[in-house]
Amino acid sequence: MNLETWAYIHHLFFADKLPKKLIARKLGLDIKTIRRALKKNTFSQGYAAPRDSKLNPFKDKIHDLLKNYPGISGERIWEDIQKIGYAGGISILRDYLRTQRSSPKAFLHIQTAPGEEAQVDWAYAGTIPGEPSPQKVYCFLLALSFSSLLYLEFFLSQSLENFLTGHLHAFHFFPGVPKRIRYDNLPSVVRSRIGATIQFNPRFIDFAKHYLFDPSVCNVRSPHEKGVVERHVRYVKKNFLIGRTFSSLPDINHQGFAWRDQVANGRLHGTTRQRPIDLFLEKEQALLLPLPAIDYDTRILAGVKSTSQGLVKFEANRYSVPFTHANKMLTLKANTHEVWIYDQERLIAQHRRGLQKYQLIEDPRHSQGLLQSRPKGAYFKHRDLLLTLGDPAQQYLAALSKTELHLAHQLKKITTLFDLFGPAEVKTAIRQALAYNAFGHDYLKNIILANRRKRDTPSPLGTPSSRINPDLVRSTWVEERNPGIYDDYFHTEEPDHES
Length: 499
Hints:
The chain is of the alpha+beta class. The protein folds into four domains: 3-100, no CATH class; 117-287, Ribonuclease H-like superfamily/Ribonuclease H (Nucleotidyltransferase, domain 5, 2-Layer Sandwich); 300-364, no CATH class; 374-475, no CATH class. Helices cover 42% and strands 16% of the residues. It contains 19 helices and 14 strands. The strands form four sheets. It has a five-stranded mixed beta sheet, with helices on both faces. It has a four-stranded antiparallel beta sheet with strand order 8-11-12-13, with no helix packed on it. A three-stranded mixed beta sheet has the order 9-10-14, with no helix packed on it. A hairpin with a 2-residue loop joins β5 and β6 (197-200). α2 (20-27) packs across α3, α14 (391-400) packs across α16 (423-436) and α16 (423-436) crosses α17 (441-454). The longest helix is centred in the middle third of the chain and has 16 residues, at 249-264. It is elongated and about 120 Å long.
């Protein structure tokens, strides 16, 4: 036994208050050796050298494993050294590993001033039903360090736009902005980092400048530096997410907001011994920075080029623009629900955002002028509209093309039935017309009217003329006159002009 071992035994027994048997296992020594060492108040060389441990030949291998894989388990190391001849048990190995692994670090608790700091993080929240497969959901959390007041919101991705939107909604929730916000090394915040040199994401810095808060980045692998939000992440996973089911993104947000207000911010906090909402209203809210007059535009911003067909591509979907803007560089902005397309600063198109892939999302008004100058293009548009009704429409079109009727003219007239009666009634009429081999606009219209009479559904007030602008017809109708007034007129005697 050397001096270091003797001193360490005294430290473990008198300072750490460990039992002698545990010290023996920890150091791989015999219990008698531990007893002898503790009887001596001063070190002397008179002790017999300890017996070689069975681990001694394998310690180099153990050190290599710990160096290359810091989190490796004792069982995994035991398996590896058994392969190279270790015949001892796992208990000795575990005792030795306790002396080699670094002990948990202790951190100083720092109390921040009211309104001084907030902390932000993402948490994976599982999946919700979606088409064609379940969708992953992520929880954005922003917690005030002083009062521990929490804002949370769920998104389908951790994109920069969702990240900024989460901040914006949190600022309006308080309302106000903390002076400093702490982050770990998220890609939305940090573009690159070499030691203490940080290159921030330019758009994030522009957002921080707009709201006048100071972004503060934690050291690498130092989650304790934002311990407030880390505890909230665990709290959300264990208290809110576990044991609940969610049918959609609006549903998980609806339940999450209620839980945030009623439970998370309304509970008695374990550290402050006050409800976060009470502490916030009493001491912190008035010290937050005021919101600017105009909100930051957190929408996705992208340059796009329209095709010759007047379409722009965004996230595997295509969106129409007016045909006058075909083959042009344009600006696209998008949020969770909508897509806007601009030419310079002028808005030229607005669509609902497609949530699935490979969708074609069109506004019929974008091609109207083009169709008037290109009759063949109008034919294909009318054909495509008919084919949206599925297989019955495809069969009907094939049969209609074999008749002597003018196909383009018939398709143009059939599409007016969509405006008058709606796609569902047209589809029903097509099925019935196929059964009776009745082809053409007139047959379809008569079938629809007959079906409506059976249901006591009144007919539309008028019929659009092909010579009139269809857009005008959809909003303007000719009033029907009662034919009886003409009968009354003919039965009325004319006045005698001569008299």
